[in-house]
Amino acid sequence: QVQLQESGPGLVKPSQTLSLICTVSGVSITTDYYYWSWVRQPPGKGLEWMGAIGYSGSAYYRPSPRTPTSISRDTSKNQFTLKLTSVSPEDTAVYYCVGGREVLGAYDHWGQGTLVTVSS
Fold first, then answer.
1. Handedness of CA 34, 46, 12, 14 (dihedral sign)
2. Please, what is the Cα angle at 104 between 100 and 83, to 5 degrees?
3. Where are the extended beta strands (E) located within 29-74?
4. pLDDT of residue 68 exceeding 90
5. SS3 label, residue 75
6. Where in the chain does DSSP place strands (E)?
7. Cα 21 from Cα 23, distance rounded (Å)
8. Closest CA to 34 of 111, 101, 96
9. Rounded to whole angstroms, how far apart are CA atoms 81 and 114?
10. What does each C-alpha distance from 105 to 28, 37, 49, 102 come to in angstroms?
């Protein structure tokens, strides 16, 4: 059974850096043709795709505005990470890590989501 679990701070101050980690179990993040993405949902809005890292290690990012600083992975821990610098209150959202066989599109696996609030 594939499971994804987000971890990171629930509260971040404006201008600070947000780092979120997704720990994947049940499948290797290097499995051929799998892509691992971050999506977020701001309060009262729809889902926003932030970016992805593929099975080969290639990273894909949403165009501006709000392109992530980086999406990286640690294959030894079967984790991938989202980093956003200089956050603002507009980055407040529930962040989900997801996985599937497409960079954009239907995802097979979802984390439970983690609420990140940007506030002083």
1. positive
2. 85
3. 35-41, 48-54, 59-61, 70-74
4. no
5. coil
6. 3-7, 11-12, 18-25, 35-41, 48-54, 59-61, 70-74, 79-84, 93-100, 109-110, 114-118
7. 6
8. 101
9. 14
10. 20, 10, 10, 6
Closest CA to 20 of 100, 72, 83: 83
* Range with the poorest average pLDDT among 83-87, 91-95, 103-107: 103-107
Pair of tokens at residue 97? 């890590």
17 contacts: CB under 8 Å, gap ≥ 6: 69, 83, 84, 85, 86, 87
Report which DSSP code applies to 90: G
Q: Which amino acid would we find at residue 107? A: Y
Structure confidence at residue 64 (pLDDT): 82
> Amino acid letter at 6?
E
Cis amide linkage into residue 65, ω under 30° from 0: yes
3-class DSSP assignment, residue 23:
strand
Residues linked to residue 117 through DSSP beta bridges, in sequence order: 11
Q: What is the pLDDT of residues 41-61, one digit of tens each?
A: 999 999 999 999 999 999 999
Give the H or E element holding residue 55. Answer: none
